[in-house]
Amino acid sequence: KAGVTQTPRYLIKTRGQQVTLSCSPISGHRSVSWYQQTPGQGLQFLFEYFSETQRNKGNFPGRFSGRQFSNSRSEMNVSTLELGDSALYLCASSLLADLYNEQFFGPGTRLTVL
Amino acid sequence: AQRVTQPEKLLSVFKGAPVELKCNYSYSGSPELFWYVQYSRQRLQLLLRHISRESIKGFTADLNKGETSFHLKKPFAQEEDSAMYYCALSVTTDSWGKFQFGAGTQVVVTP
Questions:
Q1: In degrees, to the nearest 5, what angle opens at C-alpha B107 toward C-alphas A109 and B57?
Q2: Is B96 an interface residue toward A (CB < 8 Å)?
């Protein structure tokens, strides 16, 4: 079974631009979560989608948004990029969205904002 | 709100020595606890979870509800255990699960 895939793997943008990241979950998985990983803050939860609905959201500004499509693929968008948005963005999928579900992580998209 | 605390950013141990990674959580209900690991140049992956009560790669973790802790232990560290370890907590909100990770502990095992 193919793992979680994320595209692109690397991205360089300048301040003020916007960016869209894509995540394809493991086949059959309906829950997709997004995380921001930085050396200083570690893994911070952005949001989670299940069956095209955002069910949970972390403490990030409204510039960060996402969506999930009917095939469970998800996209994350960051508008008006700031230098501090430079990070590794991880996507994780799980079969369901209950308490015990293991999350399977993608390789991440490395975003650099200049 | 729930919180996961990993007090040690870096843990350096010698090969063959015991290793213990601390994890404390705050949550009023009954959470599910996990340990995830990220080896160099690999994806973040599940190491073990409380509900399974299993030992993976020699690691065990015991949930202590009184101390709200879920420390990860291994009696004899190996060089291949060098990695970043994250403690994670999952709680139900309106019957849905929600994940939160700790800041992580970098483990370095030296020969």
A1: 90
A2: yes
Q: What tokens appear for A51 in the block?
A: 């069956």
Alpha-carbon distance A62 to nearest alpha carbon in chain B (angstroms): 20
The number of helix segments (H) and strand segments (E) in chain B equals 0, 11
Average pLDDT in chain A: 92
Strands A10-13 and A109-113: parallel
Q: What is the pLDDT of residues B57-101, one digit of tens each?
A: 999 998 898 899 999 999 999 999 999 999 998 876 654 456 789
Q: Which residues contact B53 (CB under 8 A, 6 or more apart)?
A: none
At residue A85, φ and ψ (nearest 5 deg) are: -80, -5
Facing residue for B101 by CB, picked from A43, A50, A99: A43
Residue B99 C-alpha, separation from nearest chain A C-alpha, in angstroms: 8
